[in-house]
Structures are given as structure tokens and as C-alpha cells.
């Protein structure tokens, strides 16, 4: 927007003129109110504030594609890609340009991006934090609505720094940014009395219909109406101290002069009398002044210098009223002129004036309306413009410039009113209207310049528009698109001017303007907007108003444009625009578009011969294309990279990129690939054939990928192992995709043992002509590779001592001396023998490797002929055109082991079981003289508890641990068996490794090994149920009544179903129940029905379920009561201070075992998914939040065996509470009709507080009768207290009345403290009453 005048870019402000008393003008300007506005602010060149702002902004744009960018990948980091030998003027191939043409009406080619981007690409892409920072600003309103009083009259007082566009502080023309501005509501200017210029009068006899304007918009009109011609004039009159008539006559004369000066312009007048003291406003002289001024009395003001600040607010309000009235009347006057004129230029002019006046009045809708009317009228006039009437293109240039001004206003107001869609549509219409150039061919470059500037200005508007929130979503709203098109037209401008520069750069007419390079858009030089400044006479002057067509006339403006154009750095302009396009496009994250812009930037650097920067951006570009596998685009990038590194004389990089460019995946042609292959040979043989020459100064080592698309290498040892003093083969396969046959100088294979290294050499020079008679896939001794040929090289190795032989590198050398060595580091990627999932003892090893199975009994039992035939099959050569197993290492063993290892056992094992295993060794080798068997069992890993493991000769720990076993002599085809026992104290996956080493009668030593998996499980899944003596649910866990498994309490359980716990994992040598679940206890609570209560009977039922695949026999199930030290994990109260863990109290049992329901039951068989139940009656003796009462000990044996094993399972940790009250009910077991019996309730207070209770006796009737079954004597309702640690007794005498089973009276005792009935009195109790036989006999 630097090309536009500041008055045109910014929102206009009403102008008020101040006349007289100059000393007051400063204070008036100082105290004028300001309003908050969002508008453009020009950044003036070389401004220190802006320079620091740009430095801050630049810190966030370190990855911007400018020459000083340091964040792009280095050349070595992005090594190599390819070249295209022939030069192409287009930055992309023609076929690709068709798919990526920048058509404003069709953005499909730029609307797609890759689905994923890697972190590395993010490091290479622009940092969009700076651009996104503007999203944090509050929504900006286009209307200046906030007015602040008493502010400074600074024209642009900013609140924060905005986005910078259109150049920077170092730019010759500065730049623009959007800011929150505090601008004055009025703009004032000092005017001398009679200093306004008079309005030009029409010539005599000239009517509106006959008037022929020489241009459309006058160049100075905007500046004149914003700086020179005020809407209101305020005349300040100093009231004279003397009262002589002469002084007042001077004042009246001034009023007359001002009125006559502003009369023909309809400027409004205000008069202010400045006095030093208060005067009588009805004084006769004042009245005369009012009549002379002939204005509304409210605009005739008085002020003293002491009250200037308060006066300014009043004056400001009245001035705004008159200003609005002035511009409103100007709009009406201009509208009336539209109806009188018929000339289209005047229509455009008048509509533009109405729009500008409305903009001053902040009537933005009306302003936008008339700007649109003016633009449409201009387009109608453009249709009538014929090139024959405008041979120099001056009128077309004027139309173009005026349309640019109008389009800017329409676009800006539409965006500021949040109508971005309308702005986009109008801009599209604007560009299409001027798409066809109407002017002389030699000036066509100016049209490309104009279109580029239009796109750039519109991009800047979109970038700075506060309401453009969709530019990250819709690319049509993204300024990056318009910056990109602008750069494209700058390139077209360069191409168009290039064809003219040779003819005009030495012209004498152009040379005289070398010192006058002022831009032609400077309106101070012009008479009409869009017309060249008059050098001698006006270019449109003529009797008829038509353009002069004298061919002899020199077009000075054209030659001045030529002189300016010759000094333009096109590359800087284009790259700056592309950089802005890149920055804005990065907000949308479309990496396809970003990569395309990068390629355009790189191409600009290339054609400007800045090959280092071209290489930098093409390398970054190629990195993205290679990652996304866009082969067509990558081909072009590689070709330009090759051209750049060639020009930079970088032979190392050239070779690397050439390798990539020769890849068959790319879309280059056969001729292009052939040229690159030939260039590689020229580098090695005759660099003078390259322009510029390019050669290597030392041998170049190229580390090749495993599967390089141009030349890949595969290796294989046919077996994973072999034996000492035998022969084995090693295969190397090369797959070549060079476009033409190529000859290498040597092939080298290196092993970790130098004595095995191999080499093949080809004595014929690489530049020699390759005979066309060479047959593909034939056995040859040369190192010639035909296109798309795979060659197999076989090396025979004679093994020596025992070792692990590994191939480390394979090298193909191209040339002698300063050669190119293609190196494959085999040890980095090839499969090693120990990485193959093979079991030497199983037949599956033959599927992975053609090696013999050491312990395959089926193969060992066959004849030697079959073994020999198997070996022949194993050593068959791989097919080089097919995939095969790559193996880089081979084990060289002493001798082939032919012994078979077996283990006979019945899996799985159970925790704490002495698991019986029988080893069986079958000798398929010659007679074994002696040998050793080593046993090893894996130790625990990542276990939270210690698991004890061991191998024993007998089924007890007192027997000898078994780690090794001496083998006796074993005859051929015989076997050896030995039993042993494995013990494991916890669930685990045991891996038993058996290593056998033996010596045959011939002295041959062999080794064999095998691993057996033996899982160890709990096998038995117990579930515990806790009940009280009334078979009610026990609330073992705080906060819940229900079932609990290994994951904690199940709050979904229901009371009365029993609390259950399912056993989980092994802990501390026994079987644990998972997580301990604890809760809080409130000492003020009363006893809950079903809780586990101290010193009250508790029934524990254990259900044991078998999950084993075989049957077992339960010999005995016992409950071992734990001591306090063993069971209390979280006591209610800590032990007293000074009490140690050796306190004898800690060895006391936590409960008393009363009975075991299955104590007298013999052994029981238990098969899979069957249950075994046992009941225990216990009394808890202590309290605690998490207490395990003991361990359930299951003694069992396998049904087929006799070894009894013990499986300890700890009981779950439960919550045991104490009763605040202990209640005993004493009543006889039966009664007799008519004989009294006693009913006693004893209540013990176990708390430290006095407890109060209420007693209510309810005597219900008997079942099926309305008569009560008992009479009783004693209190029916009473209250009593029980002291701490005391017992209270309540006694009643009952007299049975009816025989049978009858409910006893309900003695309801309620604690006042807890407001809850005692548990023992809640339940209904029944008593059986016998008949009185004595009464019957009587």
C-alpha cells in the first residue's frame, strides 16, 4: 500500500480551520478529545522504534525463506538428490505447470495438503507464532466509537504494535501496520484571514452538458479536502480593551473578510469572542457583531483564557455538528450535479466525492455504496475505450489507476464491515475487468506491474483485516495466495521488460532520467490520478479533448519508466513477495502449497545466480517431496539441485544427488538419466567435458542404504551354522537400475576376520565401450551390470577355528585412484544368526534356514543318504530376482550334535509343589563315552516379592540341589533317563534350560541345548465368606457390604449374601488376595449388624475351586491363626512409645479357633471346575483396620502321585471393630405354662463415657391369635444410665400363658448417644412353652 497516499489509506477526519488569536490554537488542538479507532498506520523509513519492532518480529520468523535464514537444513543433512542436464526456463516442467497454474478463479490445485507431516518438516517450516499472535487481539470494530477526553492531540497514539506489511523501517517507502489508534475527533489547521483559495468558476458559456473533463479524479482533491479546505471555520476575536469605535470596526471588517472568503465554498462559520474578563453579552457592540456574522447565536461563543479547557469541549461539540452539516450538504450538492451532467467521467468523479464525504461523516455503508457506484460507472466507460483512440495507453492507465483507488476503498470498507466475501468477489471482478491489456505493446510490462501491485495491496488488506478469521481454513481468504500471484506477475513484468531493455537501455531519452527516479505514483507531480505528470504541456490537451497522437512527440513518461525499471532488483521484489506468501500460507498448514512456494523461491535464486541459496531451498523442498513420495515434483527439485551444486563446484554433493536422480521411482526421461550417468563417468575420467569442469580430488565413499532404489545389495550365508574345517558359501546379490550398462572396477567383501576377506577386480577401464553382446544373467567374470539386472556372486569359504563369522561391509568401486566407492555396511542391517526365531531341536528351523537340525530325531533316524540329499538341498543358491532370507553371520561350531533332549512332565506346576520332571536323552550319534548335563532355571525378573526356586533330586528341600549331572556311557540309538523335582514358591513362567555336552568314542565333542517352559500356577481359587453367629453379612471393609475380589471391595453386593474374597497372587511365600482394602473407623458408632466384632463368634466359610486340567486329592484343610506381629498391617492405634517389635504381646494370636467343620473328613477328590467347602468357627481377639486372621493351609497331592504338597493362602485383611456395648440376654431354653421364668439383659459399657439408654417393652400377640402369650412383671418403659466399665442388669419375670412356640416380648433398648437400638435386642426371639401336665392331670 506504499503506492497509495496516506490521506487515501487512512480514515479521513473532519477538518476545522482556526483564524485569529494564534496563541489559543495550540490549546484548542491540545484539549480536543480523541476516539479509539482501528486503522492503518504508516511506518516511516529508518524509524528506531520500528527497527526494534522488526527485530522482535524477525526473531519469530527465523525460518522465513529469506537469504539470512539459518533454520533450513544444511546441504550435508539433506544429501543428495538429482539433476537435469538441459536448462529449463520454467521453474517447473510444463506438464506440472498445467496442474499448478495460479488461476484466481480456480484454487483446486492449491487446496490439498499432505495428511501427515513429520517433526522434521515442522523444524523446516515457518514458525507461525508471530502470525498467530494477532489472533489474541480483541475483535476490532471498524467504527470509532470510544471517545476519551483530555488526551493529547497526537495524531496517532498507539496502544500496541500491529502487523507490519508493505516493507519495513529500512524500506525506502516505509510500510504499514494496523493499530489501535487514539485519533482526534477533529483535525484543526491554522488559516490566515482570507487565506482560503477561491473556488474556480466555470467559463462563460460553459454548461455542465458541454464540459469535457481532462481527467477523472483530480490528484490534489483528497489532500485539499483533508488539509486545506475546512468544513468549519472558527474566527477567534480578541475583545479590545479600548472601547473606541475604530477597534470594533476592525473586528467587523475581519468578519466580512472571512464570510466573503468562505461564501462560495459553503464553509460553516463559528465566532468566538476571547476576553480577559466577563463582558455583557447583550452589549450593543456584541449585538452588532452578531448581526454582522449572521449565524445562529449558539455558534457565537465567549471564552476567557482561564477556562479554555472547558470551552474546548463545548466548541468541539458544536464544530462536529457544523462539520457534519457541511459534508451532508456537500453530498446533496454533488448528487444534484450528477443529475445535470451526462459525461461518464464526471459521474465517476461526483460519486467518488459523495463516497469520500460520507466516509468523513463515518457513514461507511453510504460510502461503500457510492464507491461501488463510481467503480461501476468507470467500468461502463472502460467498455467504450478503444485502443485506436489511445495509442499511448495513457487513458487506459488512468482508468486502471482510478479503478485501483476505488477497489482499495471498496475492499477496505467491506472488510472493515466484516463483509470479506463481498470484498473477495469484488476483487475477482476487478482483476477480470483489467485482465486484457489495452495499450501499446512496449508498455505491457507496466500492466503486469499494476496487476502485481493490485494483488499485493489486496493481500495486505487481507493480512491486516481484523475480521479475517478464516484465512487458516479457506485458502481463498489467505493473503498468501495473493502474495504468490503478485510475485508471479512481477516475474511476468521482468520477462516483458527483458525483451525491451536491450532496445531502450542505451536510449538517450531514457538516460536523461537516470537522476530522476521518483516513482510515478507520487500524486504531488500529477494533475489527475493515473495520468503522467505534465512535463511541458498537459498530455491530454487538445481542442477536442482527445488524446494527441503526434508520432513525433516523445513519450517522456515512458522513458522515465524505462529508466526506473532498469534499476529495479526483480529478484528481491519477487522473493520478498514469495516470503510473505510462505509466511501467510503456513497459517493454514497446507504443506503442498508451502513446498511449491519454496520451489519458486529457489528458482528465483537460481536464475539470479545465487546458487548457494537456490541449493538451500531446493534441498528443503526435495526433503518434503521425498517424504511425501511426490515423485514428479521431486524429479524437478533434484534436477535443479544438480544444476546448483554443479555451478558451486561441489563434486561430492553432485555424486550423491545424482544417485537419487537416477532412481527409477522418479519421472525423468531415459535421456536425462543417461546424461547424468555419463556425467558421473566424466567426473572420474575426463572432467573437461563438463561445463564448468567438475572432478574429485580424493576417493569418495558413498554409504549406501540397504535397499537403495538405484543399486542395492543383499547377502546370505546359506546356513546359520557350520563346522570347523569345512567349506561354506557366501552369496552377494547386486540389483542395478542404471539406465545404461555400467562397469565397476572392483568388488570387495570384508569380514570380521581378515583372513576370510574376498575381492574381485575388472581390469578393463570403466570408460571403455561395453559390448552389446553381453547376455543378461549369464555367468560372467566381469563387473558389468546391465540395466535392471540382478547378479549373484558366490564366494567359497574354508572354515577354521570355532568362532562367529560376520560380513561387515561390501564395496563396489567405480574407477581407479579418485574413485567412487559404494559401501554397504552389512553389519548395521542384515539379519544375524541369533536374531532368527529358530529352534535347532524342531523341524521349523528348516523353514527359516537350510541348516541341519541338531536334535531332530526324525531326521537323525533316517539314513545317511537322506542326510546327504538334505544337505544338497540346503546349499542351493538363492534366486537373485526373488526375495530370500538375508543372513550376515554364521556360527562355526566344533561338531554337529545328534543327541535329542526330551522332558516328560504333566504341566502346569502348582505353587510350593515339588514338580516331578523326567529328562530323557536319545543318542542318535555314535557311542557316547562321557558327558555332562547342566540344569539352569530362570530367576525372577520384575517381581515385587521374592520367589524361591530350585531343582532337587528328591521331593524336599533337604535333598541335594541339582545343577549338573554326569552322563554315563550311552550306546548308539540308546537313551538315558533321570527324574528330578522343581520347586517354585510363587506363580511364574519357569524356563528350564538343559545343556548337554558329550564326547563320542572317536573323541568328537558336541554340545546341545534346549529350553522347556514350565508354567507355575496357583491352581486353586479359594473364596472366603464371613458370617456372624446369626449367619448375617459381616462388613469386613469400611464403606461397603458386599463381595470383594482381588481388585478391592465390590460395593454392588447386597447384605445377607455373605462377604467374600477371591484369592489373587502369591505374596510372601503364600497366596495373597490382592489389594488390602482399608477404611476409617468412627469410635462413636454403635455396632453394625453383620460387622466383624472383637470377642464375638465369627463363621468363616472357604470355598476352594480347582482350575487345574487334572484331578487332585485334598488331604487336609486347616486354618493357622496368625499372631499380632504377622497379621496387623494397619492397627487402629500405634503401639505405646517404647514398645519394640520384640514385645511378647506381639506374639499373641489375633483370634481363637473354636472348631473346624471338616476336621474329621478324609481326603476328597477335586477335579477341574469343582468346589470344596470348609467352615471355621473363630473369635477375633484384637481390633484393627486391616488384619489377616491367619493362613488357610491346603494339603493336597496329585491323584496319580503320592507326594503331598502344602499350599498356604493368607486370609484377606479385614476390618475388626469393638462393640461400645456388650449385651447378654439370659433366658431359659424353654418354659412351662403357668410357671414363671426370668428374663435378664446385661449391658456392659465398654466406652469411657456415661451412656444413657431408653427401655420400651413391646408385648406382641402370638401368631394366629390376638392373645398375648406372656404376662410379665417389671418396667414397661424406663430410662437408665451405665457408668464406664460397668454392667447394668435389667430383669423381668415372664409368665407363659399358652403352650407352643411364641415370640418373647420385644425389649427395645436404645442408646441415647447413638440413637440406635442395641443389636442383641433387635432380632425377634422365640421360646418354646410346654403344657403344664400337672394342670392336665388335675
Automatic annotation (TrEMBL):
Domain of life assignment: Eukaryota
Identification of the protein by name: Trafficking protein particle complex subunit 11 domain-containing protein
Organism: Polysphondylium violaceum
Biased amino acid composition, Polar residues: 49-58
Ranges where the record places region Disordered: 49-73, 851-880
Compositional bias per record (Low complexity), positions renumbered to this chain: 59-73, 851-868
Pfam families hit by this protein: Foie-gras_1
Residues that span the membrane, as ranges: none
Residue ranges of every copy of the Trafficking protein particle complex subunit domain listed in the record: 395-657
Residue ranges that the Swiss-Prot or TrEMBL entry lists as coiled coil: none
Amino acid at each position: 500500500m506504499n503506492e497509495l497516499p496516506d490521506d487515501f489509506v487512512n480514515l479521513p477526519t473532519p477538518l476545522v480551520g482556526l483564524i485569529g488569536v494564534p496563541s489559543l490554537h495550540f490549546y484548542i488542538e491540545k484539549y480536543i478529545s480523541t476516539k479509539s479507532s482501528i486503522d492503518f498506520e504508516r511506518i516511516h523509513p529508518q524509524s528506531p522504534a520500528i527497527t526494534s519492532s522488526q527485530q522482535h518480529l524477525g526473531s519469530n520468523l527465523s525460518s522465513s525463506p529469506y537469504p539470512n535464514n539459518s533454520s533450513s537444513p544444511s546441504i550435508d543433512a539433506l544429501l543428495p538428490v538429482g539433476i537435469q542436464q538441459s536448462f529449463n526456463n520454467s521453474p517447473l516442467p510444463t506438464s506440472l505447470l498445467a496442474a499448478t497454474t495460479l488461476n484466481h478463479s480456480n484454487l483446486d490445485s492449491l487446496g490439498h495438503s499432505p495428511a501427515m507431516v513429520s517433526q522434521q518438516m515442522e523444524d523446516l517450516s515457518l514458525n507461525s507464532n508471530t502470525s498467530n499472535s494477532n489472533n489474541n487481539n480483541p475483535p476490532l470494530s471498524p467504527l470509532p466509537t470510544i471517545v476519551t477526553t483530555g488526551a493529547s492531540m497526537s495524531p496517532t497514539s498507539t496502544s500496541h504494535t500491529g502487523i507490519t506489511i508493505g516493507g519495513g523501517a529500512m524500506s525506502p517507502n516505509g510500510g504499514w501496520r494496523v493499530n489501535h489508534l487514539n485519533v482526534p475527533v477533529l483535525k484543526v489547521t491554522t488559516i490566515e484571514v482570507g487565506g482560503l483559495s477561491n473556488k474556480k468558476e466555470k467559463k462563460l458559456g460553459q454548461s455542465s452538458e458541454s464540459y469535457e473533463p481532462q481527467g477523472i479524479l483530480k490528484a490534489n482533491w483528497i489532500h485539499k479536502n483533508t488539509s486545506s479546505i475546512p468544513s468549519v471555520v472558527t474566527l477567534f476575536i480578541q475583545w479590545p480593551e479600548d472601547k473606541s469605535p475604530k477597534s470594533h470596526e476592525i473586528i467587523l471588517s475581519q468578519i466580512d473578510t472571512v464570510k466573503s472568503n468562505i461564501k462560495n465554498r459553503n464553509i460553516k462559520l463559528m465566532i468566538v469572542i476571547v476576553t480577559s474578563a466577563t463582558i455583557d453579552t447583550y452589549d450593543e457592540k456584541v449585538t452588532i457583531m452578531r448581526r454582522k456574522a449572521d449565524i445562529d447565536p449558539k455558534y457565537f461563543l465567549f471564552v476567557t483564557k482561564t477556562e479554555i479547557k472547558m470551552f474546548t469541549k463545548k466548541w468541539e461539540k458544536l464544530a462536529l455538528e457544523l462539520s457534519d452539516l457541511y459534508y451532508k450538504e456537500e453530498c446533496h450538492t454533488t448528487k444534484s450535479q450528477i443529475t445535470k451532467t451526462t459525461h461518464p467521467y464526471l459521474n465517476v468523479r461526483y460519486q467518488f466525492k459523495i463516497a469520500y464525504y460520507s466516509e468523513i461523516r463515518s457513514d461507511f455503508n453510504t460510502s461503500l455504496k457510492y464507491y461501488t457506484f463510481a467503480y461501476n460507472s468507470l467500468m461502463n466507460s472502460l467498455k467504450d475505450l478503444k485502443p485506436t483512440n489511445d495509442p499511448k495507453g495513457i487513458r487506459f492507465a488512468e482508468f486502471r489507476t482510478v479503478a485501483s483507488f476505488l477497489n482499495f476503498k471498496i475492499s477496505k470498507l467491506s472488510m472493515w464491515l466484516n463483509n470479506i466475501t463481498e470484498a473477495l468477489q469484488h476483487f475477482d471482478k476487478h482483476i477480470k475487468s483489467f485482465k486484457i491489456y489495452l495499450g501499446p505493446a512496449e508498455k505491457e510490462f507496466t500492466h503486469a506491474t499494476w496487476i502485481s501491485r493490485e494483488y499485493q495491496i489486496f493481500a495486505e488488506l487481507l493480512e491486516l483485516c481484523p475480521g479475517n478469521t478464516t484465512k487458516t481454513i479457506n485458502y481463498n481468504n489467505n493473503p498468501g495466495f495473493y502474495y504468490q500471484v503478485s510475485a508471479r506477475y512481477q516475474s511476468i513484468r521482468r520477462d516483458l521488460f527483458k525483451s525491451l531493455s536491450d532496445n531502450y537501455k542505451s536510449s538517450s531519452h531514457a538516460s536523461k532520467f537516470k537522476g530522476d527516479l521518483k516513482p510515478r505514483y507520487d500524486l504531488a507531480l500529477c494533475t489527475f490520478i493515473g495520468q503522467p505528470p505534465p512535463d511541458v504541456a498537459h498530455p491530454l490537451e487538445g481542442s477536442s479533448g482527445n488524446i494527441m497522437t503526434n508520432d513525433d512527440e516523445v513519450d517522456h513518461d515512458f522513458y522515465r519508466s524505462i529508466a526506473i525499471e532498469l534499476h529495479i532488483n526483480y529478484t528481491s521484489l519477487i522473493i520478498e513477495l514469495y516470503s510473505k506468501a510462505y509466511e501467510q500460507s503456513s497459517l493454514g498448514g497446507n504443506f503442498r502449497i508451502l513446498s511449491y512456494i519454496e520451489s519458486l523461491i529457489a528458482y528465483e535464486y537460481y536464475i539470479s545466480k545465487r546458487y548457494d541459496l537456490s541449493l538451500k531451498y531446493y534441498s528443503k523442498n526435495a526433503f518434503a517431496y521425498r517424504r511425501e513420495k511426490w515423485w514428479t515434483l521431486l524429479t524437478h527439485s533434484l534436477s535443479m539441485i544438480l544444476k546448483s551444486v554443479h555451478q558451486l563446484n561441489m563434486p561430492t554433493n553432485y555424486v550423491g544427488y545424482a544417485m537419487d536422480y537416477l532412481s527409477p521411482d522418479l519421472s525423468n526421461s531415459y535421456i536425462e538419466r543417461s546424461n547424468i550417468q555419463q556425467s558421473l563417468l566424466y567426473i572420474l575420467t575426463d572432467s573437461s567435458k563438463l561445463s564448468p569442469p567438475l572432478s574429485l580430488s580424493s576417493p569418495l565413499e558413498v554409504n549406501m542404504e540397504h535397499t537403495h532404489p538405484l543399486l542395492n545389495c543383499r547377502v546370505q550365508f546359506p546356513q546359520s551354522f557350520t563346522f570347523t574345517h569345512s567349506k561354506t558359501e557366501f552369496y552377494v546379490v547386486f540389483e542395478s537400475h542404471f539406465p545404461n550398462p555400467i562397469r565397476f572396477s572392483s568388488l570387495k567383501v570384508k569380514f570380521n576376520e581378515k583372513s576370510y576377506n574376498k575381492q574381485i577386480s575388472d581390469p578393463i577401464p570403466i570408460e571403455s565401450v561395453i559390448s552389446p553382446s553381453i547376455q543378461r544373467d549369464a555367468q560372467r567374470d566381469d563387473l558389468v551390470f546391465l540395466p535392471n539386472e540382478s547378479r549373484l556372486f558366490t564366494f567359497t569359504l574354508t572354515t577354521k577355528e570355532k568362532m562367529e563369522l560376520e560380513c561387515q561391509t561390501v564395496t563396489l568401486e567405480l574407477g581407479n585412484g579418485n574413485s567412487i566407492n559404494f559401501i554397504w555396511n552389512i553389519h548395521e542391517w542384515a539379519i544375524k544368526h541369533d536374531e532368527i526365531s529358530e529352534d535347532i531341536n524342531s523341524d521349523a528351523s528348516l523353514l527359516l534356514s537350510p541348516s541341519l537340525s541338531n536334535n531332530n530325531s526324525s531326521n537323525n533316524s533316517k539314513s545317511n543318504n537322506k542326510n546327504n540329499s538334505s544337505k544338497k538341498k540346503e546349499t542351493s543358491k538363492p534366486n537373485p530376482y526373488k526375495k530370500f532370507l538375508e543372513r550376515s553371520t554364521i556360527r562355526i561350531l566344533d561338531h554337529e550334535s545328534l543327541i535329542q533332549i526330551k522332558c516328560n512332565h504333566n504341566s502346569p506346576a502348582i505353587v510350593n509343589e515339588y514338580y516331578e520332571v523326567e529328562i530323557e536323552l536319545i543318542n542318535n550319534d555314535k557311542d557316547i563315552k562321557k558327558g555332562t548335563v547342566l540344569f539352569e532355571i530362570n530367576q525372577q525378573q520384575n517381581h515385587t516379592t521374592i520367589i524361591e526356586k530350585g531343582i532337587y533330586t528328591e521331593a524336599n528341600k533337604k535333598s541335594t540341589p541339582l545343577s549338573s549331572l554326569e552322563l554315563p556311557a550311552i550306546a548308539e540309538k540308546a537313551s538315558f533317563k533321570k527324574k528330578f523335582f522343581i520347586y517354585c514358591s510363587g506363580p511364574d513362567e519357569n524356563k528350564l534350560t538343559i545343556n548337554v555336552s558329550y564326547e563320542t568314542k572317536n573323541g568328537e565333542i558336541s554340545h546341545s541345548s534346549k529350553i522347556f517352559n514350565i508354567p507355575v500356577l496357583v491352581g486353586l481359587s479359594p473364596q472366603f465368606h464371613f458370617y456372624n453367629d446369626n449367619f448375617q453379612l459381616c462388613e469386613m471393609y469400611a464403606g461397603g457390604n458386599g463381595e470383594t475380589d482381588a481388585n478391592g471391595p465390590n460395593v454392588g453386593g447386597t447384605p445377607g449374601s455373605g462377604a467374600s474374597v477371591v484369592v489373587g497372587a502369591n505374596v510372601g511365600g503364600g497366596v495373597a488376595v490382592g489389594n488390602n482394602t482399608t477404611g476409617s473407623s468412627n469410635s462413636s458408632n454403635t455396632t453394625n449388624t453383620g460387622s466383624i466384632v472383637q470377642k464375638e463368634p465369627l463363621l468363616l466359610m472357604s470355598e476352594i475351586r480347582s482350575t487345574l486340567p487334572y484331578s487332585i486329592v485334598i488331604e487336609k484343610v486347616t486354618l493357622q491363626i496368625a499372631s499380632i506381629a504377622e497379621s496387623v498391617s494397619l492397627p487402629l492405634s500405634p503401639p505405646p512409645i517404647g514398645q519394640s517389635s520384640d514385645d511378647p504381646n506381639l506374639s499373641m494370636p489375633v483370634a481363637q479357633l473354636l472348631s473346624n467343620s471338616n476336621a474329621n473328613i478324609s481326603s476328597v477328590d477335586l477335579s477341574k471346575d469343582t468346589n470344596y467347602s470348609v467352615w471355621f468357627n473363630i473369635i477375633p481377639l484384637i481390633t484393627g483396620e486391616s488384619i489377616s486372621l491367619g493362613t488357610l493351609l491346603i494339603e493336597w497331592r496329585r491323584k496319580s502321585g503320592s507326594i503331598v504338597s502344602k499350599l498356604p493362602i493368607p486370609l484377606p485383611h479385614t476390618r475388626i471393630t469393638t462393640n461400645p456395648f456388650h449385651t447378654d440376654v439370659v433366658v431359659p431354653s424353654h418354659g412351662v405354662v403357668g410357671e414363671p421364668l426370668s428374663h435378664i439383659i446385661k449391658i456392659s459399657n465398654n466406652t469411657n463415657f456415661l451412656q444413657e439408654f431408653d427401655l420400651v417393652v413391646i408385648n406382641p400377640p402370638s401368631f394366629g391369635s390376638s392373645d398375648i402369650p406372656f404376662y410379665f412383671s417389671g418396667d414397661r418403659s424406663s430410662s437408665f444410665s451405665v457408668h464406664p466399665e460397668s454392667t447394668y442388669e435389667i430383669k423381668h419375670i415372664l409368665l407363659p400363658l399358652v403352650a407352643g412356640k411364641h415370640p418373647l416380648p420385644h425389649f427395645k433398648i436404645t442408646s441415647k448417644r447413638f440413637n440406635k437400638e442395641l443389636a442383641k435386642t433387635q432380632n425377634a426371639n422365640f421360646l418354646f412353652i410346654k403344657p403344664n401336665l400337672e394342670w392336665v392331670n388335675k
